[in-house]
Amino acid sequence: MASRNNQNMQIVTISLALVLVLCLVGLVLLNNSRKTAEARAVQASSSAQEARGTVSQLQSEANQYKTWMGFPEADTLDTLQKSFTEDMASYGSTFDESSRYYRTILQNIYEENRKLAQSEGDAKTEIKKLKLRLLATEAEKDQQIAKFSKDKEKLSADAASERNKFQTLSQQINEEKDRIAAELDKKRTAIDEAASLHASEQTALNEKLGKLERVIEILKGNQVETDPFAQPEDGLVRYVNQRNGTVWINLGEADNLRPQVTFSVYEGDQSDALSAERKGSIEVTRILSDHMAEAKITDDQATRPLMSGDKVYSQVWNRGRQVGFAITGVIDFNEDGISDLRQLKQIIALNNGKVDAVPGDDGSIDGKMTVDTRYLILGEHPSDSRQASLRSAWEKMSEEADTLGIEVKTLDEFLSLMGWQPDRRTVKLGPGARSEDFPAKPIGDYKPARSDPRANIFRPRKPQPSY
Predict the structure, then answer these.
(1) Same domain, 41 and 123
(2) Cα–Cα distance between 23 and 135 in angstroms, integer?
(3) Overall domain count for the chain
(4) Tell me, what CATH number does 460's domain have?
(5) Do 253 and 333 lie in a common domain?
(6) What is the value of pTM for the model shown?
(7) Is 456 found in the same domain as 366?
(8) Residue partners of 352: CB distance under 8 A and separation at least 6
(9) Which of 17, 121, 228, 463 reaches 20 to 30 Å from 103, CA-CA?
């Protein structure tokens, strides 16, 4: 039992010893922490005092800067920033943004003022020089004015003397001019009389010369040798479709062919269009290529149908040049009393021909017939008393055609040679017929047209003139 109590006492003693050691260690550590804190406090107090000194120094410097810049020491940074912005907007707006500072602006202003002062000094010096030059110029001007005044007086005297001389000479010139004018009037009258006589003589000579030229042209035309192969064909029929009444010929755009040109057709074994008998006629409807065109059959015979290899010929259309025609008389295709002259012109134009001369409204002739005119186409004779001017043109053109050797064709003969058939006006017979449909035709001084016994036989073209 006693042994067990001793063990307990030992344990308690050891525990107390350990507690005492721990307390001593804690006291040592606590003392060290206190000393460290005191050292830190002393150091912080020293740093704070130094910082207060630095702040005080910086504040003093800032106040000095404010004083240098003209601001009160009590102004805050916001106040200074606002003032700085306003000053830069007022005084530094013309400077670069990187140079907008008080010192930079002052330097630039000083430099500008220095330049202005130097320019002002130079300007004053120049003004002084100019004043001296002005005084010298004024003196020279006074001298020149005095000299000019003397010269003016002399010139005025000379001018008065010359004026008197001029008046005397002018009077003499006017008298001489009146005399020359009188002589000129006499000579002008003589010249006018001579010119009138010369004009009349020249007109007579021109008329005579024109007649001689026409006679020469006729003689030249008669001297041209006849083509040994007579009149050749214009083209060939390549294919015929009798069912559709359509043919194709070897003429096209390269030959200056146009739609609505009409051709007469004759046998392919005939080599001379002069003696060939017409089988029928065709009218071009469409140009297919350079040397191919489509045409419709406008006239044929059931016993002599158009066939491939037949030849085509036109009295109006000519490859490479226009053929000229003259027209006179009343042109009326369907006897409806309305002139079809315009339609006849269109038919000739569509066949690449041209109209050289037609009668005018006043009896004159619009255009001129020449030896190259192919035909004179005679319409119905203008026998009505109201057609006196048209009848006069008929006579003139018929006589001129005789003089120039132009072949004459009646309207029906011409249209037949072309293979063109006009639409005939039909009149209904019976109780409903009107007397106006059968107007009486007066018998006046009608001059019958020269008929051609070979109306359906082709005629040779006149030789193409050489230009």
Answers:
(1) no
(2) 118
(3) 4
(4) 3.40.50.10190
(5) no
(6) 0.38
(7) yes
(8) 256, 257, 258, 261, 316, 317, 318, 322, 323
(9) 121
Among 321, 408, 341, residue whose Cα is nearest residue 369: 408
The range of the structural domain enclosing residue 389 comes to 315-424+444-467
Task: Tell me the per-residue pLDDT of 261-312, one tens digit each, with 9 for 90 and over.
Answer: 888 898 888 877 767 888 888 999 998 888 899 999 988 888 889 999 999 8
In a domain, 96, yes or no: no
pLDDT tens column, 305-356 = 999 999 988 877 777 667 888 988 888 877 777 888 888 888 888 777 888 8
Tokens of 324: 């000229």
Sign of CA dihedral 218, 220, 223, 228: negative
Alpha-carbon span 189 to 187, nearest angstrom = 5
> Torsion angle, CA of 57/63/66/70, rounded to 10 degrees?
-140
Tokens of 380: 């119905």
297 beta partners: 282
Residues 279 and 410 in one domain: no
Computed from CA positions of residues 219, 318, 249, 408, in that sequence, does the dihedral angle turn out positive or negative? negative
C-alpha span between 269 and 309 (Å, rounded): 8
Q: What is the spatial distance between Cα 442 and Cα 36, in angstroms, rounded to a whole number?
A: 160
Q: Work out the number of other CB atoms within 10 angstroms of the CB of residue 9.
A: 10
- Are 122 and 183 within one domain? yes
Residue with structure tokens 């040994």?
A: 228
Q: What residues does 287 pair with on adjacent strands?
A: 293
String of DSSP letters for 277-336? BP-EEEEEEEEEETTEEEEEEEE-BTTB---TT-EEE-SS--TTSPPEEEEESB--SSSS
